């Protein structure tokens, strides 16, 4: 395999990423020299306990958080890409994203098409088609005329996902995308991700739902600002790494043809 072939097979390459949160005396280093290659055309899930640095790492990969080290997108340094080109290639769905409550669902989803539009140009037929496809994929089409502020938390999350899908980017990064979604709509989200990957897209998601994360092609396991393991989600070594960072309070089992993670209750010892 040539160097060019290797670059094409890697969507995101992160090298020696360190990052801080907070300011002044409250500043704290939360990532410690993380290096990571994200395979193109696959779904990679990032898991770990609270405070492991998962969301911080994802924000660094998206280029929305200052950091040391380098991040490349398909072999190009992220910092060298013009903002519009970066936004076309890489879509981002963060936690608790703000959006004007008086905007309609349609208008919010159409924001995902801004990287493809000329300055002050009206949306094209391609923009309309992309937005409709995204809203239908997230079961939000029926609300397209409703203001965002009239939706529940789960409904709002589906609209924000539609906005990210409307970009039609090669890479989609999502931070806790299942927040506020009930189990049936979590399953719908899983179907959307699997369809994207089948079409050749690259998906990276931070998930607290370990059973959902186990559906991914690959899993990045984190603890204390470092990557402790990166491997296939169905591999025994990956399952062992997940159990380790959660202090063996998670057990992964095969059930009905898929892997599921079950919590283990602490047992009080008696004297």
UniProtKB/TrEMBL annotation:
<keyword id="KW-0067">ATP-binding</keyword>
<dbReference type="InterPro" id="IPR003439">
    <property type="entry name" value="ABC_transporter-like_ATP-bd"/>
</dbReference>
<keyword id="KW-0813">Transport</keyword>
<dbReference type="InterPro" id="IPR017871">
    <property type="entry name" value="ABC_transporter-like_CS"/>
</dbReference>
<keyword id="KW-1003">Cell membrane</keyword>
<protein>
    <submittedName>
        <fullName>ABC transporter ATP-binding protein</fullName>
    </submittedName>
</protein>
<keyword id="KW-1278">Translocase</keyword>
<dbReference type="InterPro" id="IPR027417">
    <property type="entry name" value="P-loop_NTPase"/>
</dbReference>
<dbReference type="GO" id="GO:0005524">
    <property type="term" value="F:ATP binding"/>
</dbReference>
<keyword id="KW-0472">Membrane</keyword>
<dbReference type="GO" id="GO:0016887">
    <property type="term" value="F:ATP hydrolysis activity"/>
</dbReference>
<dbReference type="InterPro" id="IPR003593">
    <property type="entry name" value="AAA+_ATPase"/>
</dbReference>
<comment type="similarity">
    <text>Belongs to the ABC transporter superfamily.</text>
</comment>
<keyword id="KW-0547">Nucleotide-binding</keyword>
<dbReference type="Pfam" id="PF00005">
    <property type="entry name" value="ABC_tran"/>
</dbReference>
<feature type="domain" description="ABC transporter">
    <location>
        <begin position="12"/>
        <end position="249"/>
    </location>
</feature>
<comment type="function">
    <text>Part of the ABC transporter complex HmuTUV involved in hemin import. Responsible for energy coupling to the transport system.</text>
</comment>
């Amino acid at each position: 395999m040539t160097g060019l072939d290797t670059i094409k097979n890697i969507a995101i390459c992160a090298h020696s990423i360190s990052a801080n949160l907070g300011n002044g005396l409250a500043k704290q280093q939360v990532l410690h020299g993380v290096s990571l290659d994200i395979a193109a055309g696959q779904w990679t899930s990032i898991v770990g306990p609270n405070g492991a640095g998962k969301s911080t790492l994802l924000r660094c990969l998206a280029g929305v958080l200052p950091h040391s080290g380098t991040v490349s997108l398909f072999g190009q340094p992220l910092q060298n890409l013009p903002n519009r080109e970066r936004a076309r290639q890489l879509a981002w769905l963060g936690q608790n994203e703000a959006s004007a409550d008086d905007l309609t669902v349609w208008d919010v989803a159409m924001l995902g098409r801004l990287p493809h539009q000329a300055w002050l140009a009206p949306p094209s037929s391609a923009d309309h088609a992309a937005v409709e496809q995204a809203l239908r994929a997230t079961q939000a089409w029926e609300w397209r005329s409703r203001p965002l502020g009239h939706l529940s938390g789960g409904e709002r999350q589906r609209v924000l996902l539609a906005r990210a899908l409307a970009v039609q980017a090669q890479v989609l990064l999502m931070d806790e995308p299942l927040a506020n979604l009930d189990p049936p709509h979590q399953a719908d989200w899983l179907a959307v991700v699997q369809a994207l990957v089948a079409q050749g897209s690259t998906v990276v998601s931070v998930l607290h739902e370990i059973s959902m994360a186990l559906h991914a092609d690959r899993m990045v396991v984190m603890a204390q600002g470092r990557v402790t393991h990166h491997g296939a989600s169905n591999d025994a070594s990956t399952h062992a790494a997940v159990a380790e960072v959660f202090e063996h309070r998670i057990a992964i089992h095969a059930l009905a043809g898929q892997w599921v993670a079950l919590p283990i209750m602490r047992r009080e010892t008696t004297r």
